Sequence to fold (113 residues):
Amino acid sequence: FFFCEFCNNMGGVKPYPYPKYVWSPTGGWWGKGSKVNTSIRLAATFGVLALGWAYIFKVSANNERRSPPIRPIPSQRWCRHTLEDDPDYPRKLKEYQKTKLSLKEILTPDSHH
Fold:
């Protein structure tokens, strides 16, 4: 049938010789390994994002300064200047941990009233 011959010829031109040393994220000319290239690209993207996040976290923790809060806040645990800005922090943290509710107590209705 003409239709079957037409199906076999679809897709443009037949592959021609091309340089094997060319690499591209999409597989280059007539690429067969798109799953491998996609995973390489995703791993590289997530790696760059993780490094960027870690750098921003480090700079923020080293430079964060604040007036002493009434109760401890999470970022004080990794902030470099916590004890300089709030010398009373260890005592406040112990008091807060004694009185804070557990996650189960928070989620269970009327358990803490």
Remarks:
- Helices lie at 2-8, 34-63, 82-85, 89-99, 103-107.
